[in-house]
């Protein structure tokens, strides 16, 4: 069949009449495609290409690697598409004609975190990312997004895991690039015996990993091998992150988010102004915020709170780290009384349990860091109904060539 691509879908697939979703196509293109399901097709030939089509920088893109969705699209229209989706979400929430600040785009080969899937297939082992459509894996040996220090580990890690008895059929690996070197959290579907621990220790020694942590399936991680302490800076704060800790995708993305959050604070804050940092993680935003006020950082993960607390105590920052699960125990209006500003950086699902309390408390300034435009729009609608206005929103594109959107939105009464 031949069809014309009408628009770009939210996941980065071209959308033809139907709707029919066709990956690796662009708006305006005429394509010859084969139907693979009721609403999905695969293109065979680009009959009339878009002038915005470019050569994908990674060889795994055309193999269907799900890590990226838009490597075939030029940067300018990609950013315009993300900006439009962000503006649409906020407009639907009740903020017409949102003030969009100039976007920040982070460079390639700077992502410092990789969440890899592992699958044993007979004598072979696959280490990589899931395909965009099917559940199979693309075994990657290079990546245009990841920092070269992580890319260099892919092939030797795959070979080491192939010989690891603890990996029966499936597992996962989280690689974080810290200041002290790559940090690995390995999850397997079998127990890690002494032989496997020795093998991981040898791998750490050979490839300069200060620590390898391991867990059985979804269990609590334990240290399997440690050569040296782990340290990294987040928001200027030196911390010892727990295995698999959340980090902003790139140093440049982190810096852009911090700058946008600080710019979103009220121009005039008293020296003792109180600021709450919700979903604070390791304290990436807490320390920079403490230059403008007295900060309480709330985080649900105990190991992250401990790391943040140790970091702020070491520098004597005006930050108090508090463990609190804001989904199960959100801050109430009484807890929020007297705050000059609230900053929140929730997970992908947003903050549906916390936002209504923020709205009722009438916190004068709310700065929302979001990695999901749909969740941001849903939560922003609650603020719009409570009388908040949208001061500004800024796209920070640190998820290169993906459909994911990172943004900082500033709300004020």
UniProtKB/TrEMBL annotation:
Keyword S-adenosyl-L-methionine: yes
Binding, S-adenosyl-L-methionine: 248, 279, 299, 345
InterPro entries per UniProt: NA-bd_OB-fold, SAM-dependent_MTases_sf, U5_MeTrfase_fam
Catalytic residues (positions): 371
Keywords noted in UniProt: 4Fe-4S, Iron, Iron-sulfur, Metal-binding, Methyltransferase, S-adenosyl-L-methionine, Transferase
Membrane-spanning residues: none
Keyword Transferase: yes
GO molecular function, one term: 4 iron, 4 sulfur cluster binding
A Pfam family recorded for this sequence: tRNA_U5-meth_tr
GO term, biological process aspect, one: rRNA base methylation
Family classification: Belongs to the class I-like SAM-binding methyltransferase superfamily. RNA M5U methyltransferase family.
Protein name: Class I SAM-dependent RNA methyltransferase
Lineage: Bacteria, Pseudomonadati, Pseudomonadota, Alphaproteobacteria, Acetobacterales
